[in-house]
């Protein structure tokens, strides 16, 4: 598994809401300013499904990122299986500095692991910036 992490300077309730509500997901779920997320759906419960469209702003490409939840513990943890069968584990830990988010995910086989780590970290960094500035 690949691990990324970040500490968000905000309350656990705000972090949880911004992580999971579609109206917030569309504001942060992309890795660079040339991309955006025009659509997000989220049924946050074990057995529930989620899907986020990530698209280049110039219209040159887009893809849907989605899966099914296997574990949901409010303000603590989310696990899911992606559409291709890979697993992801996310923990939310309250610390004196804010909420530490740790994401662990199975790599895919098409791109180097370092590229995958950098891409997922960029999205997590975008989330941090969005939460701390809104």
UniProtKB/TrEMBL annotation:
It comes from the Bacteria. Residues 9-132 form the Activator of Hsp90 ATPase homologue 1/2-like C-terminal domain. Belongs to the AHA1 family. This is Uncharacterized protein YndB with AHSA1/START domain. The lineage of its organism: Bacteria, Pseudomonadati, Bacteroidota, Flavobacteriia, Flavobacteriales. Gene3D superfamilies: 3.30.530.20.
């Amino acid at each position: 598994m690949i691990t990324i992490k970040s500490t968000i300077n905000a309350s656990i309730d705000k972090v949880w809401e911004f992580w999971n509500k579609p109206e917030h997901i569309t504001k942060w779920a992309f890795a660079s300013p040339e991309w955006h997320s025009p659509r997000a759906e989220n049924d946050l419960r074990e057995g529930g499904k989620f899907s986020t469209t990530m698209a280049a702003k110039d219209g040159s490409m887009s893809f849907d990122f989605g899966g099914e939840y296997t574990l949901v513990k409010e303000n603590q943890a989310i696990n899911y299986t992606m559409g291709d069968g890979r697993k992801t584990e996310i923990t939310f830990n309250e610390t004196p500095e804010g909420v530490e988010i740790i994401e662990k995910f199975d790599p895919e086989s098409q791109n180097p692991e370092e590229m995958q780590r950098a891409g997922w970290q960029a999205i997590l960094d975008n989330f941090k910036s969005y939460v701390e500035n809104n």
